[in-house]
Design goal:
It contains five helices and four strands. With 150 residues, it is of the alpha+beta class. The protein has a domain at 40-123: Alpha-Beta Plaits (2-Layer Sandwich). Strands 1-2-4-3 form a four-stranded antiparallel beta sheet. Strand 3 and strand 4 form a beta hairpin. The longest helix is centred in the N-terminal third of the chain and has 23 residues, at 14-36. The radius of gyration is 27 Å and the shape is elongated. It starts with a helix and ends in a 16-residue tail after the last helix.
Length: 150
């Protein structure tokens, strides 16, 4: 059995093994980077469809905390009814947790300025989820050309 093991080891090419090991390490590192990557474009798309025309945001900040992605925005609504509608939309959203509207003030135009804070659900900003949503491209059908002798 020892001779068989030595023969098998001799047939293995150490360069190929080293190259495959490096490739495996690169694939593992790439996967870890993708899993940790945040995709904010999904958050912006959500805000675009979830914000009434009577509300606008003038400041956008985020940070990573132990609870996840913390979102902080400053905005302006055309009255308290518009702000209440925005609060209802965000409250019903599965993507925002612990949402708080604060610093409500009526400006000289009669608009309500406010601050907003929330924790964003990780699934909304997950790059891995976005890649899965897009899916792999469909294979392209190919045909083999044949020729017939004259």
């Amino acid at each position: 059995m020892g001779v068989d093991l030595e023969n098998a080891r001799a047939t293995l090419q150490s360069e190929v093994i080293s190259e495959l090991t490096r490739l495996n390490n690169r694939i593992t590192s790439s996967r870890e980077l993708i899993l940790a990557h945040q995709n904010l474009s999904s958050l912006f798309a959500f805000l675009e469809v979830s914000t009434p025309r009577t509300v606008r945001f003038s400041d956008f900040r985020y940070s990573m905390t132990q609870q996840g992605l913390e979102l902080a925005m400053v905005g302006e609504a055309r009255g308290y009814a518009a702000l209440a509608l925005q609060a209802e939309i965000f409250d019903k959203s599965p993507y925002f947790k612990d949402s708080i509207f604060s610093d409500l003030r009526l400006n000289t135009k009669g608009d309500v300025t406010f601050a907003f804070k929330a924790t964003v659900d990780p699934s909304l900003v997950s790059y891995e989820r976005e890649v899965e949503r897009l899916g792999a491209p469909a294979p392209i059908a190919t045909s083999t050309a044949t020729s017939t002798p004259n």
